[in-house]
Amino acid sequence: VQLQASGGGLVQAGGSLRLSCAASGRTFSSLSMGWFRQAPGKEREFVAAISWSGISTYYADSVKGRFTISRDNAKNTVYLQMNSLKPEHTAVYYCAARSGRYYSTQSYEYDYWGQGTLVTVSS
Fold first, then answer.
1. pLDDT tens digits for 48-63?
2. Distances (CA, A) of 108 to 16, 111, 113
3. Alpha carbon of 105 to those of 12, 16, 19, 46: distances in Å?
4. Under 8 Å CB-to-CB from 1, ≥6 apart: which residues?
């Protein structure tokens, strides 16, 4: 499975961005998907995840009510809509995929990773 993340960039605090992650090489609907991020000097952390069907989602407490994960299985793409961004959201955001119907919040349970897309939020 190849994952290509896009949509990062520079945005002012309070602004919005939508990240996309396009998958290829395997039936997308058989994969659960997640977004993780790594800020400078920090470890990679879980952001959001979605089940293969899109029915179930899960968020880190720090982004609940602010970020929304979704997927379009017809387009082999998962999205992360990020609203009301803050400087502390600055990080490289990675999409990840794991075989199976159910998501995970643990990075080691994901089999495939995208290259990351940088989000910079200015104050």
1. 999 999 999 999 999 9
2. 29, 8, 11
3. 28, 24, 19, 6
4. 23, 24, 25, 26, 31, 97, 111, 112
Structure tokens that stand for 99 in this block = 């075989």
- DSSP secondary-structure letter at 67? E
Q: Rounded CA gap, 64 and 9, in Å? A: 21
Residues of the chain with pLDDT under 70: none
Task: List the beta strands (DSSP E) in the chain.
Answer: 2-6, 9-12, 17-24, 31-38, 45-50, 57-59, 67-72, 77-82, 91-99, 112-113, 117-122
The C-alpha R_g of the chain, in whole angstroms, comes to 13
Residue 63 to residue 69: CA distance in whole angstroms: 11
Nearest to 37 by CA among 102, 121, 100: 121
pLDDT, position 25: 82
Report yes or no: 62 and 35 within 8 Å, Cβ to Cβ. Answer: no
Tokens of 79: 């999205």
